Amino acid sequence: MTSETLIRPDGTALVYERFIPEKPVHNIGVMFMHGFQSDRNANKAQFLDAACRRLNIPFIRYDAYAHGQSGGEWPDFTIGHAVHDALLVIDELTAGPQIIVGSSMGGWVALRLLEERPERIAGMVGIATAPDFTAHLSANGDYTRALIDEGPRQFVMDEDWNFDGPVHLLQGKLDTSVPWETAARVAAKFKDPAKVVVTLIEDGDHRLNRPEDLDLQEKAILDVIKRTS
Predict the structure, then answer these.
(1) What is the model's pTM?
(2) CATH of 26-228 among 1.25.40.80, 3.20.20.70, 2.60.120.1140, 3.40.50.1820
(3) What is the rounded CA–CA span in Å between residue 185 and residue 180?
(4) pLDDT by residue (tens digit) across 117-151?
(5) Residue 182 CB burial class (10 angstroms; 0-12, 13-18, ≥19)
(6) Of 6, 142, 144, 182, which has the most beta carbons under 10 Å away?
(7) Contact 156, 79 (CB under 8 A)
């Protein structure tokens, strides 16, 4: 697998890896957004990349601003940067409807994509989705003042969402970073909660990196794809 580079409008590099099958099984692609201080080479991203290659499903994963191999200075990073990158990727590097898959912070970014590009999104998979998490932080070595101050501009939990496509949320009940009840709160915000499946993993933590967790993530993507037809 060979990484590629897209130059952002500010001149910094966004690094990504993309799979475009010769004979896709349908016209829906999968776009993965990693979590805070993670990157496109995390276990979940690599597993889902391999799964989509096996299933002949278009797939893209990338490093957000100041994460992984992408450019950008860490003290400047905000959720707005992550949202901007997601918009750039879906606009410039994908074709056709997408299943957006967001892990932790990536789940928050996915919810912002639902607001900004609903016409491009066929469905969503959230993995330990962490919307508006900066509201509960204070500045320290990991969480900068820029991140916290900009966070409210990206908040999504203060209003309901019009998106009514299929959604599947995976949440570990032993998650110490995102309270497991968050999944139900997210589900209730959608226009048609009946289209939202919530899978609670009794012994699952925040990372959800075990083989059985990864298997559930693949099944969630296939569930959402099936429900788009």
Answers:
(1) 0.96
(2) 3.40.50.1820
(3) 10
(4) 999 999 999 999 999 999 988 777 679 999 999 99
(5) buried
(6) 182
(7) no
CA distance 31 to 102: 8
Q: What is the 3-state secondary structure (H, E, C) of the chain?
A: CCCEEEECCCCCEEEEEEECCCCCCCCCEEEEECCCCCCCCCHHHHHHHHHHHHHCCCEEEECCCCCCCCCCCHHHCCHHHHHHHHHHHHHHCCCCCEEEEEECHHHHHHHHHHHHCHHHEEEEEEECCCCCHHHHCCCCCCCCHHHHHHHHHHCCCCCCCCCCCCEEEEEECCCCCCCCCHHHHHHCCCCCHHHEEEEEECCCCCCCCCHHHHHHHHHHHHHHHHHHC
Per-residue model confidence (pLDDT) at position 141: 64
- Residue ranges per structural domain of the chain: 26-228
What angle is formed at CA 102 by the lines to CA 101 and CA 106, rounded to 5 degrees?
Answer: 150
CA distances from 55 to 41, 48, 184 (A): 20, 10, 30
Tell me how far apart the alpha carbons of residues 121 and 100 are, in angstroms, rounded to a whole number.
Answer: 7
Ramachandran quadrant class, 97 (left: phi over 0; alpha: psi -120 to 50; beta: rest): beta
Residue-wise pLDDT for 35-89, tens only, equals: 999 999 999 999 999 999 999 999 999 999 999 999 999 999 999 999 999 999 9
pLDDT value of position 138: 76
Higher pLDDT, 4 or 2: 4
